[in-house]
Amino acid sequence: MTDHITVADAGNGVRLVTIDRPQKKNALTGAMYDAMRAALEQADLSPEIRAVVFAGQPGMFSAGNDLTDFLGQGEGGFGDTPALRFIRQLARTQTPMVAAVDGIAVGIGATLTLHCDLVYASPVARLRMPFVELGLVPEAASSYLLPLRVGRLKATEILLLSETVDADAAFALGLVNAVIPADMLVEHALAQAARLAALPPGALSASRRLIRGDRDRVEAALEAEATAFEAQLRSPESQERFQAFLSKAASAKSRPA
To answer: Which SUPFAM superfamilies has this protein been placed in (predicted)?
Structure first.
C-alpha cells in the first residue's frame, strides 16, 4: 500500500487499484492522486498489464477531494497539482480501465468513471458532481463527456444542480454497464477486465481508439476546464463556499456521538 492506494497485479494481466482511506470516506489527497497516476503510467509502459480496475473499500468509492489537502495543493496554482496531473493521465491512458463503484462517488470519484471503458455499480452506488455549488466548474472533461453520454439537459441537472444519480438511474442513463450485488462487484469488474486483457492487443487498442473518438477534444475540454477551475478557485464566492463547507464539517465532527 502507498499513501492509502493499494496496487495489486494479478497474473491475468489485470491491475487492481484500490482506494483505501475509509476513515475519510476515501477522500483523495495529493499523495493518493500521485500514486494512482503512477499506477496508470506504469500500466501503459508494461506489456504484462493489459487492463486496470479502480475500486474503493466496501461501501464507498470516493468522496472526492480531501478539501483541506486540496486547498493546500492549490496555493501555487491549480495548473500543476497532483489532482490535475492525475486527470490528464486519465484522459491519456492507453490501457483499458474499469471502475467498480460501491457507495458514494463524489466529484472526481464520479468524473473518473467517464474515462473508464466499463463501469459497474453496486445497488447503493451514488454519483454526484457538486462543483458549481462549491463555486467551481466541472473537471476531468465532464462538461464535454457527460452531455455526450446522457444529453445536454440531463447533464445540466447533474452538473449545475448537483443532482445525485443512484445506481438504477445511472444504469438507465448509460453511466454504468450493470448493477451488481456489492459482494460480487469487484470480482465481476476483475473478470470483465480479464476478458479485455485476453483480447488481441493490437485489435483492442485500435478498437478502443475508434470507440472513444476524438481524444483531442477531450483534452481540449479538460484544459479549458482547468483554466476556468483555477480562476474560480481563487474567486471570493468559491472561498466563501469552501469555508462554509469546512466549518460545517468541523462542527459536525465536534458534536458528541
So the answer is: ClpP/crotonase
